[in-house]
Design brief:
Chain lengths: 224, 224
DNA sequence: GATCAATTTGTACATTTGTACAAATAGTAA
DNA sequence: TTACTATTTGTACAAATGTACAAATTGATC
């Protein structure tokens, strides 16, 4: 029970940015949510841009470390399909589930990343490119080894769609609930992870030279 | 050569909102981009919120009409796999490619939708839910008929991932170029459409009761 | 308790924001 | 031309914004 104003400011900033975007949230909004004074923000962070930078610095490293850790485990699986599934899971899970100590939560931070990415926030862009591209590349490499014959182009695009699906699941979960008439709960992150992993598995798997979707189609076309 | 200030304002507003988000763009930014005066915005649209509303009203109906038209054509295909592919394409293409007359372009409008959706813009939310949910539902129904045995949950989640992938392809194409080391051009919309259609096809197809990814995996597990 | 640094508060300031509106201009029909 | 409407311009204004900073408060060390 001592979240030290500084922590409270950071945490509330993530939540507010994730919910409304960067420019729609004022420093006074953040201060009010954290039950603190506006001045405390300039004192601790200097500027709004720097507050954002500190948020990224706090979450990026732990999240990617966890990803690399899980990727390392996944790579030891010999069966290529099982390995592919585990690799995809290693990429997705740390973005959805908050890691042990780092409060704020992986999902809220990821959602904030999604929103700032959509806004093309220039402060965020540089950090993201530096910190996340390397990790993404490592995952694409690992996935490539599971899907022999897959084109580099296909792999990169599918990794883009994977991240887009991940982001949108966090940004707009209400749509899932609405479209299903309430039968599916879009806020259920466990379910979202499971569905995204399976969908991405199929998406990557179809790049394989022999058992791709196109091949499937041609086969079925001929029998029809 | 007569884009009538009103048209220029609308068009530039879409571009700017799509690039930076709603709150980051001021009415003066829009006026300057359209080489017009600030006052012309209040004259033509009354308020910033209403400007947004008019943008949606202009693009939503034509885009969804085109989607329904293509969906109708796709449904006439008898082979379920070919039909599935055509249905997915019918959903994606109008969002990427600008329809004939409605200037502004489908892609720019879609990108704007993506950004405002990420920002949770309340003005946009109501319009989106009303205008697009019905169309999405129709597509999910049509897809369901192509994939016997697919769970409703799986279909809805995959439609969510499809839309997320679509949005993210428009929001952050630079990432594709970067991750591929320049080998793939993220701005190439033709390629993006093709890749997204194929990936989504595999994603939906894997929901089929017999040839799903899970079944594939179990099979491979046993032989390994 | 006294001293000093760290933090928190309150307030002030220049800019920018959306909006309003009167004056100027352009367009059109008689 | 003249009369009238539609549009465009310029400017004004209150509210909100990020930032700065002096004063007040708290916390720790001696």
């Amino acid at each position: 029970m001592r979240p030290s104003i500084r922590e409270a400011l950071l945490k509330n900033a993530v939540t507010l940015f994730a919910g409304r975007g960067y420019h729609a949230v004022s420093l006074r909004d953040i201060a009010k949510a954290a039950e603190a004074n506006v001045g405390s923000l300039t004192y601790h962070f200097g500027s709004k841009a720097n507050l954002l930078k500190e948020i990224y610095e706090r979450h990026t490293q732990p999240m990617n470390a966890r990803r690399r850790e899980l990727l390392g485990e996944a790579r030891r699986i010999s069966n290529p399909d099982e390995r592919l599934m585990a690799i995809i899971r290693a990429y997705i899970v740390p973005a959805f589930i908050s890691s042990s100590e780092s409060d704020g939560g992986g999902a809220e931070f990821t959602r904030m990343r999604a929103v700032l990415s959509a806004e093309g926030n220039p402060d965020a862009q540089a950090i993201i490119a530096d910190a996340f591209d390397e990790t993404s590349r490592a995952f694409i490499e690992a996935i490539a080894e599971c899907v022999p014959g897959a084109s580099r182009e296909g792999l990169v695009w599918r990794s883009q769609f994977l991240l887009g699906g991940l982001y949108y699941a966090l940004i707009n979960p209400e749509r899932v609930s609405r479209l299903s008439g309430g039968a599916v709960n879009g806020e259920d992150r466990e379910a979202a992870v499971g569905q995204l992993v399976e969908a991405s598995y199929a998406s990557f798997r179809s790049l394989a030279a022999d058992t791709g979707a196109a091949a499937d189609m041609i086969k079925q076309e001929k029998t029809a």
